[in-house]
Design brief:
The chain is α/β, with parallel strands linked by helices. Helices cover 38% and strands 28% of the residues. The chain contains four helices and five strands. It has a five-stranded mixed sheet, with helices on both faces. β3, α2 and β4 (77-83) form a beta-alpha-beta unit. It starts with a strand and ends in an 18-residue tail after the last helix.
Length: 139
């Protein structure tokens, strides 16, 4: 199961993942990511991973294929928050953080859900579409 969930920041794609993920569910997430990229110069993602067991083979291949297409676009991704209490998922996220230096990836335990949602919603200085949000008020 993969479902999109709301986040107050428009540039954030948020999802809850658990059980078995299908290719159809994964495609909805990919479509949401692509829509966010069309609307914003930089996006972030949050994934709540609870009781994730597996992806179907088709979903796994789609995930790998889409991931490979994004390697040249990593500068469009700012942050990824992974909310989980599973140690093995935390280790994978830490490895990805080391591999993909363009994007900051952090894990948060479930009890820090609010902190994860706040952190992932922040944009770097200069990346806001509205200059007032960056503290810039003209010369």
């Amino acid at each position: 199961m993969l479902e999109l969930i709301p986040h107050p920041a428009d540039h954030v794609v948020a999802m809850r993942v658990g059980g078995i993920v299908t290719a159809q569910e994964l495609q909805r997430a990919i479509d949401a990511i692509e829509a966010a990229k069309r609307d914003h110069p930089m996006i972030s993602m949050v994934a709540e991973l609870d009781d994730l067991r597996w992806m179907t083979l088709t979903a796994l291949l789609k995930d790998i294929g889409y991931g490979l297409t994004q390697l040249g676009n990593l500068d469009r991704y700012h942050r990824a928050a992974v909310i989980t209490d599973k140690a093995w998922i935390t280790h994978i996220a830490q490895l990805e953080d080391r591999l993909f230096k363009a994007m900051e990836i952090r894990t948060f335990p479930s009890r820090e859900h609010a902190a994860a949602m706040q952190w992932v919603g922040e944009l770097p200085r200069g990346a806001h579409e509205n200059p007032d949000e960056d503290g810039y008020h003209g010369a």
